[in-house]
Each structure stands twice: as structure tokens, then as C-alpha cells.
Amino acid sequence: MDKFFKNISFSLFFKVNFLVTTILFLLFLMHNSAYTFISFIMSFFGALSSVILLYVVLYIFFFPFLYFKRFVLYFAGIVFFLVDIGLIIDFFIYRLYKFHINGMVINILTSPSAMDSIELGIAPVVLFFSLVIGLLFFEFFLIRKLFSFPYEQKYLINKKINQKIIVPFIIIVKEKKI
């Protein structure tokens, strides 16, 4: 069982992707100009709480794969990529229609005549594909970079990050009463 907890590369990869997803949430919040300072702070902590809960679920999902050190990184990279793309798609839909992805949106997008009711210019399409390519490049670059670091360096970085995030993590999880 001890080998499960020694996948330092996955631990760092997981934390960097947590930060990326948190930044995407924050960018979405900053796009909305209707916030007061108090409502922004409350929304920020709500978004942070949502990201933490999502990543707790993802960690539970990845736990059985932690023994496979390389496989879990590539598998997690694809899953994190899909999560982040889902957030970006939701952001674009919210910017266009002022509501989030829901059953109606999915029904419209998957209907045979979806392209009759949706007209996108070239800029959103180019931006979306640029983001897709950029995120994929980032995930695989990060994996390669983690493989190149010596174990001791990864261990020290991971230890420093853990010391900084443990208290906020416990507070948010306790607040959710998990």
C-alpha cells in the first residue's frame, strides 16, 4: 500500500491542474462585472469550494491507478483536459446566452439542426481551438517536465505545497461537512 502514496509526480501534476482549474473559475468570475466586493468574495469561495470537491472526486477516481506511475499521469492529463475544456465551453455559452450548460443547451447542440440555430464567427472558433491545442500542449509538457525532475526535488516541492494548502483545504471540506 505504501507505493500508492509515493507517486510524487502525480501529486504535483494533480496540484498544478487544480491551480489551472481554479484560475479558469476565477477568470469566469472576473468576467462578470455585476459583482460587488462582498458578492465576488462569496462567489470566489463558492467556486474554490466547487473546484476542491471536484478534485476530491477526481482523486478518488484516480486512486486505483496510482500504482501505474506513468499511465495515471497521461490518463489524468486527458481527464483534466476534458474538465478544463468543459469549463471553457461553459464560459463561452454563458458569454453568448447568459446561462450555463444545462439540458436545453445540450439538446440544442446535439440536435440534427443545431448549426441552423447557432452561428459562430471565426474568432470564437479560432480561440476555442487555440485553447484546446494550448491546454493539450500544457498537459503533456507538464508530464514531461515532471519526469525530468529528480525525485528529491519533486518531494521537496510537494512538501512545501502541502504545507500551504492543508489548512484551507480542511476548512473548505469541513464547511461542506464531508
Main attributes of the structure:
178 residues, mainly alpha, globular
Description:
With 178 residues, this protein is an all-alpha fold. It has one domain. It has seven helices and no strands. The chain has helices at residues 8-31, 37-62, 69-97, 103-110, 114-117, 122-148, 151-176. α1 runs parallel beside α3 and α1 (8-31) packs across α7.
List the helices and strands and how they pair.
Elements: H1 8-31, H2 37-62, H3 69-97, H4 103-110, H5 114-117, H6 122-148, H7 151-176
Helix pairs in contact: 1-2, 1-3, 1-6, 1-7, 3-6
Keywords: Membrane, Transmembrane, Transmembrane helix
Transmembrane segments: 12-31, 37-62, 71-94, 121-143
Short description:
The chain is 81% helix and 0% strand. It has 178 residues and is an all-alpha fold.
Topology pattern, helix = H, strand = E = HHHHHHH
Summarize the biggest pleated sheet.
none
Mean pLDDT: 83
How many strand segments?
Answer: 0
Coarse morphology: globular
Low-confidence stretches: none
What's the total helix number? Answer: 7
The tally of structural domains comes to 1
Residue fraction in strands? under 5%
Distance between the termini: 24 Å
